[in-house]
Write a structure and sequence with these properties.
The complex is a heterodimer of chains A (490) and B (226).
Chain A (H helix, E strand, L loop, with lengths): L1 H22 L2 H26 L4 E3 L4 E3 L1 H25 L8 H19 L4 H19 L5 H36 L7 H7 L5 H19 L7 H8 L2 H25 L6 H24 L4 H22 L1 H33 L10 H4 L1 H14 L6 H15 L3 H27 L17 H19 L3 H16 L3
Antiparallel strand pairs in A: 1-2
Helix pairs in contact in A: 1-2, 1-4, 2-3, 2-4, 3-4, 3-10, 3-13, 3-18, 4-5, 4-10, 5-6, 5-10, 6-8, 6-9, 7-10, 8-10, 8-11, 9-10, 9-12, 10-12, 10-13, 10-19, 11-12, 11-17, 12-13, 12-16, 13-15, 13-16, 13-18, 13-19, 15-18, 16-17, 16-18
Chain B lengths: L7 H23 L3 H26 L3 H28 L11 H22 L4 H27 L3 H22 L5 H29 L13
The chains are: A mainly alpha (490), B mainly alpha (226).
Chain lengths: 490, 226
């Protein structure tokens, strides 16, 4: 059963790529991408349920599907589905009709590589999958082919390739450490590394872990390696920003989570968690400070991604069932909420013709419905109840208070307030401030299409529901993930 | 672990190949001419290929011959040719705005090697005969990493940055041939192909940079800040 589901999961985006490139027809490419992404979403839910009965391996154990991987697949599929729907409405506004098939081919290819990374059981192949996500998404970042987007693409590929090469070095050192325990040749699986970790020379293990943490942390956008992120997220088309922020960061966090699982039995475990907490809190503080003084609307969203990836790192670092549950609940909620935010930002950018917050005024007059959704999303992403991010952040706080990292909890709470005020101040200005005279006439009325509003509803409603009601079944999923992380992947 | 049974001939072959690769990194660090970088990179790749073959021969890993062949072909031939094409097309022959003079970057490079040696010493737990080669391999792996990052941060030209990244990867590749010769063949081959794709992507991006940003110097890529 799991095998068929996986097959559908991977064949669907590949079919979309083939159709887009083969037929070179924009409308077909659009609908093929939407169909593929919805198929993936439909398939990923039973996949999570399947893995609850135990991890499944295929193809000489190169492919492995456990609950952790399936959960990240679910988060990625949600963003893929939402943003490919939004892309249909948004990309038609760009006047790039001829290059649209190429865009959708890259878009589905990007989704494919991220999904593939989640099921890789071999640490080296996982690295390659993450590297491939960079190569494909570079061209999505630079898709608009203006000076800014080309600059962002260049910075993105240079910084991330440099960072990810540290992860490769860490991976090689992990393998070398393991070779003293398991012999010269062994399959480099997560399970093998986990088994060998307690007996490896611990300073070597520590250096390997830190290299991997910095490497995948670069890709995940943890500060101070986040420098590519605001550029790439702000210069790419809105659906791509949503994919980068909602899906790609999750795939990289998966790497950090898996490596934390690898060292969980070793004596450096405590230090490894402290390092993750330190990166998490640093990202959170840096992002909070940049949010307060931000002038660009999409850069604001990008720094908010750095903030939320910091929160997820904090949850992983605090550890325990609450920490893990909070992290992965946060991952799901952030994926939906950030997609909603980027969709709203994309609409506003197109209508007002500017990326500056100061040029966007009276949003509710221009977008009565989707503007309301965007505002509510902003309240949600700042961490206010009754939206889902409040619950997951609260759970992470509980995990922190119970553990040894009280200092991080104090900083976390203080800067949560800073983010709340800073983030919503920008929205207050955009919604309720008086517009300067000369800007009042420039607003372009966008033609109403369902494709730009529907995904916003689809992102918003689950956020509200999950904020009021944490389904009991999810606890079983998070318990299983937490077991997988500490018990290694069997 | 085969390093424990090395005789002095094998140890000196491995060491001299590794040290020569490190010296070539210094050649790149000390020169301003883009062509010199590419030549040094090509020779370095050939040395690494020779190292793979030597490890394969002495340690009994026949599959390393395949790796050696592919390394020589891809890193030693195809990548330098691709890079040369980029250099020719760009009409930029040398680094113009050096943040650091070549002499000072050489000195910093030397300090980085010492730092790498200190770290390598802490990471090793092997007894004496193997320790020499292990520490050397770790030192060179880490110092190529450091020097690669140094090149990335003090050079502006797009081609120099690509080469900086390739030096990072060469360092890992060199170290892994000595430390983990048993690492699965599939992964090494895929990483080689991956590198080829990386450089192809860079080639396309450089073209976009020229057309849309009007420059290939990262010094002028300063529109996005804050």
């Amino acid at each position: 059963m799991a095998q068929q589901l996986l097959l559908i999961l991977f064949v669907a985006p590949l079919t979309a790529v083939a159709l887009s490139l083969g037929l070179r027809h924009s409308r077909i490419a659009e609908y093929a991408t939407v169909a593929a992404s919805i198929t993936d979403l439909v398939v990923s839910v039973p996949l999570v349920m399947q893995t609850m009965h135990g991890t499944v391996f295929f193809w000489h154990r190169y492919i492995e599907i456990d609950t952790l991987g399936a959960w990240v697949i679910l988060c990625i599929s949600i963003v893929y589905a939402l943003s490919s729907m939004y892309a249909v409405g948004y990309m038609r506004l760009l006047d790039e009709e001829k290059r649209l098939p190429l865009f959708y081919a890259l878009f589905s290819g990007f989704a494919f590589t991220m999904l593939a990374a989640c099921v890789m059981n071999n640490v080296g192949v996982f690295w390659i999958a993450i590297e491939l996500t960079t190569l494909i998404s570079t061209f999505l970042v630079g898709f608009e082919r203006e000076a800014e987007s080309t600059e962002a693409a260049w910075k993105y590929i240079i910084v991330v390739s440099g960072g990810i090469s540290l992860a490769l070095l860490g991976t090689v050192l992990f393998y070398w450490g393991g070779s003293f325990v398991l012999g010269q040749r062994y399959a480099m699986t997560w399970g093998a590394l986990h088994r060998s970790a307690p007996e490896v020379y611990q300073p070597l293990l520590l250096i390997s872990f830190l290299l991997v943490l910095v490497g995948y942390g670069t890709k995940a956008g943890l500060a101070p390696m986040h420098t590519w992120l605001p550029d790439a997220h702000s210069e790419s088309p809105a659906p791509v920003s949503a994919m980068l922020s909602g899906a790609l960061l999750n795939a990289s966090m998966l790497g950090i989570a898996r490596f934390l699982g690898v060292v969980s039995g070793a004596s450096i475990n405590r230090f490894a968690h402290t390092a993750v907490v330190a990166f998490g809190i640093f990202s959170f503080v840096i992002a909070a400070l940049f949010i307060v003084r931000q002038t660009g609307i999409k850069r604001l969203m990008a720094y908010s991604s750095v903030e939320h990836i910091g929160v997820q790192a904090l949850g992983l670092g605090f550890g325990g069932v609450f920490g893990v549950a909070g992290t992965f609940y946060h991952m799901l909620n952030h994926s939906m909420n950030k997609s909603l935010m980027f969709f709203g930002a994309g609409n506003a950018m197109r209508a007002y013709g500017t990326k500056e917050i100061s040029g966007i005024r009276h949003v509710l007059k221009t977008f009565p419905v989707s503007g309301t959704l965007w505002l509510l999303g902003a309240v949600g992403i700042a961490g206010a109840p009754p939206f889902a991010l409040f619950l997951s952040e609260f759970t992470i706080l509980r995990a922190g208070i119970a553990g040894p990292y009280r200092w991080a909890v104090v900083l976390f709470v203080v800067f949560l307030v800073v983010v709340f005020i800073g983030f919503l101040a920008h929205f207050r200005a955009m919604y309720f401030d008086e517009a300067p005279e000369q800007q009042a006439q420039q607003v372009r009325q966008l033609p109403w299409v369902i494709w730009r509003t529907l995904p916003m509803w689809l992102a918003f409603l689950p956020l509200l529901v999950l904020g009021l009601w944490w389904p009991h079944g999810l606890w079983d999923v998070f318990l299983k993930i937490s077991l997988e992380m500490t018990g290694g992947v069997q | 672990m085969f390093l424990a049974h090395l005789n002095s001939l094998q140890a000196s072959i491995f060491s001299s190949l590794a040290i020569m690769s490190l010296l070539l990194t210094f050649v790149m660090l000390g020169s301003h001419w883009l062509r010199n970088y590419v030549y040094a990179f090509a020779v370095q790749s050939w040395l690494i290929a020779a190292l793979s073959a030597a490890v394969g021969y002495f340690a009994g890993y026949p599959e390393l011959y395949v790796i050696a062949l592919l390394t020589a072909l891809f890193r030693g031939l195809v990548l330098p040719l691709l890079l040369m094409r980029i250099v020719d097309r760009l009409n930029v022959k040398r680094e113009i705005h050096a943040v650091l003079q070549p002499s000072s970057s050489l000195v910093i490079g030397a300090f980085l090697v010492m730092f790498a040696f200190v770290i390598a010493n802490h990471m090793n737990r092997q007894p004496a005969p193997a320790a020499n080669v292990v520490i050397l391999a770790l030192t060179i792996m880490l110092s190529m990493k450091f020097i690669g990052f140094l090149m990335l941060s003090v050079r502006d030209e797009a081609v120099s940055q690509i080469l900086g990244l390739l030096v990072l990867e060469n360092g890992i590749f060199l170290g892994s041939q000595i430390l983990v010769p048993g690492m699965p063949l599939l992964i090494e081959i895929v990483i080689l192909f991956d590198l080829l794709i990386v450089v192809a992507c860079f080639g396309m991006l450089v073209r976009f940079l020229v057309v849309h940003a009007g420059t290939t110097s990262s010094r002028q890529l300063n529109r996005l800040v804050g």
